[in-house]
Amino acid sequence: MGKLKPEYQWLLPAALDSVAPKRRSTRDWVIDVICFVLGYGFTLLATIDLLRPHPTVVPEWEGAPAWLIWLDFAVGTVAALGLWWRRGRWLVPLAVFCTLVSLFAVAAGITCLIVLFTVAVHRRFAVMVVFAGGAMVTNAVFPLIRPEGERPYWETMAWGTVFIVIVCLWGMVVRSRRQLVLSLRDRAERAESEQQLRVAQARSLERNRIAREMHDVLAHRISLLSLHAGALEIRPDAAPQDVATAAGVIRASAHQALQDLREVIGVLRADGPEGAPEPPQPTLGALPALADESRSAGVKVRLDVRIEPTSVPDGTGRTAYRIVQEGLTNARKHAPGATVEVAVDGSAGDGLTIDIRNPWPIINPPVAIPGTGTGLIGLTERATLAGGRLKHGRTADNQFALTAWLPWPP
């Protein structure tokens, strides 16, 4: 049976009523053969016994004419043949037929019980109650039409009631078990589907995170390239040594940018090992190298890290590193030549604070470095996703301040 959405789970019991198997399995054939043999076999035995002058198996129904016995045999045969179609849409008509003939038929007794059991298994409780009630009524009328020798009326009706109740309860147990199996199977399939969806979502979120980090990385690298290229453009008469140094920095930055881009493209194209960290994954321990790289490009950086980088969780450290990296990139773009002060402080439980400041630019830079305009927006989103907050803007002492707070669990 296919998967059902949660809002349609209440239809599951009804689905058993309207959906019939398209093809019988080997088990179904075996059960149908057994039911037919039991039903029609009892019809033959009961007819033979009724035709005997002096029955020895069960007491005789005295006064039964021959035509009634042969009619009993005929309807028992029809009912037994109907057992082959009891699994489909003919079950209800067959049950109605068996209910009517059970008013007088003896030979169709076992067949009628099998049909009632099938109704209890394949139909809703309300439908089963209707046919069970009909069986109770015919069970009460039958001893009046065909009294059973010296056996009292109430005894005959009581035994019939016991058989009807047992068959109905047995069918309800079988139906409940089938519903439980279907429900557990559907729940397992849905859980597996949801697990696959969660894995796909986690992979997509991880790749988006990598792409966001690569924006920061490439913006940092390309800003270095643009800064040095601009310096060469505005100083064509620079000393050969300075030109060679700038060209070396440009070459190294371009090589590193291509290397980072190659790594992230490889990650986005192929799934990595389960649980393996995706490069690049720098943390607070890489801040000195980041500051040295900016200093080599001519940026004045004052780095003040007042905590032990290894004590900060990796996730918080990565977010802090990206904030500092974007802050230095923005300073190079909008305030070239200014001194950038970076302070990192905090403690476990109180959180991690990053403060980046540089003088507010007085004039426009001689060589404008293009940007996407979404760097600070991306940093704010990154800090918010990490459970922190970020502020930026001009201060009262004419400085541009970028301040972030990140949670640091105790």
From TrEMBL:
Reactions catalysed according to its record: ATP + protein L-histidine = ADP + protein N-phospho-L-histidine
List the GO molecular function terms. Answer: kinase activity
| Major enzyme class | transferase
Keyword annotations of the record: ATP-binding, Kinase, Membrane, Nucleotide-binding, Phosphoprotein, Transferase, Transmembrane, Transmembrane helix, Two-component regulatory system
**This protein's superkingdom?**
Bacteria
Q: Which residues form the Signal transduction histidine kinase subgroup 3 dimerisation and phosphoacceptor domain?
A: 206-271
The record lists the membrane-crossing segments as 29-47, 67-85, 92-119, 125-145, 157-174
Q: What Enzyme Commission number(s) does the record list for this chain?
A: 2.7.13.3
| Pfam families from the UniProt entry | HisKA_3
Entries under CDD domains matching the protein: HATPase_UhpB-NarQ-NarX-like
Q: What is this protein called?
A: histidine kinase
Source species = Paractinoplanes deccanensis
